[in-house]
Amino acid sequence: MPEHTGRTYVVTGADSGIGAAVAGRLERDGARVIRCGITETADVRADLTTPEGRASAVDRVRDLAPACIDGVALVAGSPDGRIAVGLNYFGTVALLSALRDDLARGSDPRAVVVSSASSLSAGDGDLVEACLADDEPRAVAIAERLVARGRGTVIYRSTKIALNRWLRRNAGRDDWAGAGILLNAVAPGIVGTETARRTMLADATNVRVLQDALPQPLGMPGPVEPVAAAIAWLLSPDAAFTTGQVLFVDGGAETTLRGEAPFVSGVRYGPLRMARMIVWTVIGRLRSRSGR
User: Fold this and answer.
1) Are 143 and 214 in contact (CB under 8 A)?
2) pTM of the entire structure?
3) Rounded alpha-carbon distances, angstroms, from residue 205 to 19, 24, 78, 202, 222
4) What are the distances in angstroms from CA 236 to CA 104, 210, 242?
5) The sheet that has 8-12: what strands, in order across it?
6) Distances from the Cα of 160 to the Cαs of 77, 176, 209, 220, 237, in angstroms?
7) 8-260: CATH superfamily
8) Residue from 158, 194, 189 nearest 20 by CA
9) Coiled-coil region(s) at which residues (predicted)?
């Protein structure tokens, strides 16, 4: 048995797949893990698609770890368009927001969410904006219309796009980075979880479509453990200077689809930031000349 590290982590989606692999890895490293799921093996059983389930999960986590928690890995998600909105986006953001103060009391606190390499594709703009506006009833209504129109497959990636954007908006703010809480995402490609094999990988024709839509030079499906390892690293002290990142662990899909595009143009600064940099550059030069 490994020596207990004294660190306590919360892992959602810990019943199977990536969540179970993350929880197992953290426990082997000596951490205490509060497993959240929907089966009898979970320490916290709750339906994260509903506000009541989310509140129940937070209360139970606090019962089990009343002082603080050191990290959360929010892995729970669903490819089912009918429940993806409530679970993938609103459930994840609700738990992050509710547990933020508990994290702030922890040692070297970390939060990692699971996105998806499917977020590289275009989503439904109305659904993404409804998520980011924190309007769950509107988001659900949009998702229902998409299903009715035969566009239900766009819902999953739209929730992950919204999650990426929420993370990028919030990771650097005072209540996250300013409070010492590192907030990152891991975006897996298609890996060999039981759910993936039962759904998207079950049909040979669908697999051919996926190979074009999300090409993975390192193979499809990929292994689960490297994804779990990336999440565990982002939860560890070794990731102490990393926040606001979406780490693609996708067998090469992101680089295949985007190439060098994200790095062709440099950052474009706004007028206020540019003016401040000019002023401080001038001040620095004047001080240098005066020997101060």
Assistant:
1) no
2) 0.92
3) 28, 34, 21, 9, 18
4) 16, 33, 11
5) 44-45, 32-37, 8-12, 71-74, 110-114, 182-188, 246-249
6) 10, 20, 20, 20, 26
7) NAD(P)-binding Rossmann-like Domain (3.40.50.720)
8) 194
9) none
Which amino acid makes up residue 71? G
User: Do 125 and 179 contact (CB within 8 A), yes or no?
Assistant: no
Q: Which of 155, 230, 217, 219 is nearest to 187 (CA)?
A: 230
Look up residue 272 and give its two tokens: 């206020």
The pLDDT tens digits of the residues spanning 62-117 come to 999 999 999 999 999 998 888 999 999 999 999 999 999 999 999 899 999 999 99
**Nearest-angstrom CA–CA distance, 210 and 112:** 26
Amino acid at site 225: E
> Tokens for 188?
């897996």
